[in-house]
Amino acid sequence: MNRYRTRALAALLMVGALFVSTACSAGLGGPASSRAARDGVIRFTFAPDPIWDYMRDEGIIKDFEKENGISIETSATWDEFGLFAGGHADIISSASFEVPGLEEETERETVIIGRYNSERSRLLVRAGDPARSLADLKGKRLGVFTSVSGTLVWHALVEKMHGLSVTGKDADFKIVVADIQNLSNLLARGEIDACICYPDLSARELRQGSVRALYGGKSSAQLFADLKAPGHDGPMGNVFVARKDWVDKHPKEVGAFLDLWSRGLREWREHRDEIIERYPQHFAVESPQDVRFMKDYVAERDWVVQDVRFDRKWAEAESGIFDLMRETGVIGDDVQDPKFLPTAGERQ
C-alpha cells in the first residue's frame, strides 16, 4: 500500500469502466486520434457524459469551435490511460488523487488544468441496520467495486476517523469486490452488509428505502472537507489533466478548453433536470420514478462543481488529500503532490 504503481494502473482502468454508466466524464464519439499535437487543435479523450452530449446536440461545441478557430478532436474510449500514455491525447480526466499514479505509469509530466466533479461515493447499509458508522460494522462484509481508486480515499478517512483499515492484509472488514452497478442490490438482498456505492448507481434502492447512507449521507469528499479542509469541494472524482509540455506550448488552447467547460457547467446548472431526463443512461436510471428521484437527489447533492477553473487556495486544499493519505499509510512519503494550474479569474 506504500506505492502507486500497479495499484494506480488498475485504478485508472477501473475508473474508465466506471464512466460507462455514470456522469463522470464526457461522451465524445469518433476514433482515437493518431496525429501529433498541433496548434489550434485539442485532442480530448473522455468517456460518455451528459453535459458534453447536451453541448454537442445543442450545437454549442460546433459554434464554439467556429468562434474560436480551435478544433476539438474527440475520442470515445474507456482507455483514456492508454491513449494518454501513447501520446494520442492532450487532455483526459482522472481522479485528482490518481494523478501521481498516472504520471508514474505513463512517465509523462502532467498538470491539472481544471476540475469537474467531486468524489461522490457514499457508505450505504440496509435500512434496518442500526449501525451509525463503519466502526459498528467491524468484521462485516463490505462491498467495493475495486480495492483501489476511491476505496483508498475511504481507507484514509476510516483510518483517520476510527483507526480501522478498509483494505490490505490487515483489513478490519471482509472485502467483497463486485460489479459497481450491482453493489446496492447486493446490499438490499443481504449478500453484503455495507458498500462503498455511488448514488447514481443506487437510485432504485435509495428511492425504495431499502438502503440508507451512513454519516448523514455525506460523500467521501464531504467527509474529507469536514476533517481537513472546511468548505472545500474535493477531492475530485474527475479533474482535467493535460501533458505539461503541451500546456506550456498551447496556452490559447488551454484557455479555450476551460472556457468551453465553463459554458458546459453553466448549461448544467440551468438545464439540469432536462439533461437528466434527456440522457437517463448516464445516471443509470430508466423508470420515470427513478428519473424523478435522481432529479431531486442531484438538486440537493450535486457533485458537479460550480466552475471548472480554480485558484491557488483551492489547489492547496485539494492537495490535502495527499497529506491524509500519507498520514494514514495509503501512500508513501515519497509520492509527490500533482501539479496544478490555477487560472480562476483570467478568462471567463
TrEMBL record:
<keyword id="KW-0732">Signal</keyword>
<protein>
    <submittedName>
        <fullName>ABC-type nitrate/sulfonate/bicarbonate transport system substrate-binding protein</fullName>
    </submittedName>
</protein>
<dbReference type="Pfam" id="PF09084">
    <property type="entry name" value="NMT1"/>
</dbReference>
<comment type="similarity">
    <text>Belongs to the bacterial solute-binding protein SsuA/TauA family.</text>
</comment>
<feature type="domain" description="SsuA/THI5-like">
    <location>
        <begin position="111"/>
        <end position="274"/>
    </location>
</feature>
<feature type="signal peptide">
    <location>
        <begin position="1"/>
        <end position="26"/>
    </location>
</feature>
<dbReference type="GO" id="GO:0042597">
    <property type="term" value="C:periplasmic space"/>
</dbReference>
<dbReference type="InterPro" id="IPR015168">
    <property type="entry name" value="SsuA/THI5"/>
</dbReference>
